[in-house]
Design brief:
By secondary structure, the chain is of the alpha/beta class. The protein is built from eight helices and 13 strands. Helix 3 packs across helix 4 and helix 6 packs parallel to helix 7.
Length: 264
C-alpha cells in the first residue's frame, strides 16, 4: 500500500520537465518537496494528477533507462484518466484554486463526494442532502472554515487564506488516500498559515493519508512533522533527508545541494 513513483520522466511538447524522479509515499507519511522556482515541483504534481499538457518521455533504451511506473496501492495510474485517478483516491490541492461563480461550495462538495465514492454509496451514507450539509458544516467548524462560506460561490471573492482553508476542508471531506498540496502556504499570513497547518495535521491524524507538500519555505514545515524532505533541482530529486534538511537549506540555499547524492 503506497504511492510509488518510479523513474518518472515527463515533458511539455518537446521540452523535458521531469527527469527520472523516483519516490515512494506510504499511508500516514508526510513528505515535503522543496526547491527553487522552475525546478519542476508543480510540474511533478500536475503530471501525477494526469494533466494532459504533461506527457511521459520515452526512456532512453541505449542508456539503459527503465520505464516509468506510477502506482497507487498497486493500481497503474498511467492507464487512468485524471478523474479516474481522483476517484481512486489521489487529491491535488492547486497553488491557485479556481473560482466557480454560481456553484456554491456545499453543492460543489456534494457533487465531488458523489464522484469520489460513487453516487449510490454517497446516498447510502447520506440518504438526504441535508444530512450531508450537516456533516459538511461540522467538518467546516472542525477545520476552521467559516460555515457562511459554504453557501457562497466556490472561491468567489474569497481571500487567499479562505481559499486555502477551503482546500483543507475538501481534503477532510473527500478523504483521499494520497494528497499532493502544491504551495498551499503561498501568500498566507501567520494566522492563515497556522490554520492550514492545523488542518493538515488534523487530516493526517484522523485519516492517515499519504501526503506530499510542495513548498519554497520553512515556515509551514515548522508546524508540521515531515517524515522526509526532498530537494528538487532541474527536474530531479537532488537530495533527500529528514526534517533537519530544512534548516540546512535555510542556511545554505538550494544550489549547494545540486551536486550532492541522495541520502535515502
Amino acid at each position: 500500500m503506497s504511492l510509488q513513483i518510479s523513474h518518472l520522466r515527463a515533458k511539455v511538447e518537446d521540452t523535458p520537465i521531469i527527469r527520472d524522479v523516483s519516490l515512494t509515499i506510504q499511508p500516514g507519511e508526510l513528505h515535503a518537496l522543496m526547491g527553487p522556482n522552475g525546478s519542476g515541483k508543480s510540474s511533478l504534481a500536475l503530471t501525477l494528477a494526469g494533466h494532459p499538457a504533461y506527457q511521459l518521455a520515452e526512456p532512453n533504451s541505449t542508456a539503459g533507462q527503465p520505464p516509468t511506473r506510477l502506482r497507487l496501492d498497486g493500481h497503474d495510474l498511467l492507464k487512468l484518466s485524471p478523474d479516474e485517478r481522483g476517484r481512486l483516491g489521489l487529491f491535488l490541492a492547486f497553488q491557485y484554486p479556481a473560482e466557480i461563480p454560481g456553484v456554491t461550495v456545499q453543492n460543489f462538495l456534494w457533487q465531488a463526494f458523489q464522484a469520489r465514492f460513487g453516487a449510490d454509496q454517497a446516498r447510502r451514507h447520506f440518504d438526504k442532502v441535508i444530512k450531508f450539509r450537516d456533516h459538511l458544516q461540522q467538518k467546516a467548524e472542525q477545520m476552521g472554515v467559516n460555515p457562511l462560506l459554504l453557501k457562497r460561490g466556490l472561491n468567489e471573492n474569497f481571500s487567499g487564506g479562505e481559499k486555502k482553508r477551503l482546500e483543507m476542508l475538501q481534503l477532510a471531506v473527500l478523504e483521499p488516500k494520497y494528497a499532493i498540496l502544491d504551495e498551499t502556504d503561498s501568500g498566507l499570513d501567520i494566522d492563515a498559515l497556522q490554520a492550514v497547518a492545523a488542518g493538515i495535521n488534523q487530516v493526517l491524524a484522523d485519516q492517515r493519508p499519504g501526503m506530499l507538500i510542495i513548498t519554497h519555505y520553512r515556515r509551514i514545515l515548522d508546524h508540521l512533522k515531515p517524515n522526509a524532505v526532498h530537494v528538487m533541482i532541474d527536474g530531479r530529486i537532488a537530495r533527500s533527508g529528514g526534517a533537519e534538511l530544512v534548516a540546512e537549506l535555510e542556511r545554505q540555499g538550494y544550489r549547494s545541494d545540486h551536486s550532492k547524492q541522495d541520502d535515502g
